Amino acid sequence: MRFRNLALSAASAVITVASPVSSAFAGTATTTFLVTANVNSNCIIDATDLDFGDYDPVGGALDGQSQISVTCLKTTQWNVGLNAGTATGATVTTRKMTGPGAFLLDYGLFTDATRTTNWGETVGTDTVSGTGTGATQIISVYGRVPASQNVGVGGYVDTITATVTF
Fold first, then answer.
1. Helix/strand/coil for 58
2. Domains of the chain (ranges plus CATH)?
3. Please, are residues 113 and 107 in contact by the beta-carbon 8 Å criterion?
4. How many CB atoms lie within 10 A of CB 149?
5. Tens digits of per-residue pLDDT, 109-142?
6. Distance of alpha carbon 145 from alpha carbon 157, whole angstroms
7. Residue 114 or residue 101, greater confidence
8. Is the distance from CB of 129 to CB of 38 less than 8 angstroms?
């Protein structure tokens, strides 16, 4: 119980009067609200270099291999495509490394170890597809430099862009 102090001006006396103040609640009411978030598809991609090593046109075709790492959120559908590279006249079916002078060294990139399925950049046609797991998924890139190319001595190079579409 709480008490109130009242001052009386005429008598200059203080009188304390007991006055009940209730702290009990009379009832309750409830409501609900939503808690939401949106998770958008997302992927990251990384690749290792493909180094064919030393090519001898007389010795036959030269094979090489590299890897692409794709990490996508769970259930994200993805496709990885490889462009034609940077050499003039290159296509996704006839890629070319640029060498000394005007020499070009042809090579191919494939999705399979037998090097029969070309790897291009048209989603649903010549790309590699999968479904994200939340963990890194490794995709092998298989390369081949065909035999019997008439090219000059020196180093050859190309730059391929790997793109993940999701």
1. helix
2. 43-165 (2.60.40.1090)
3. no
4. 14
5. 999 999 999 999 999 999 999 999 999 999 999 9
6. 12
7. 114
8. no
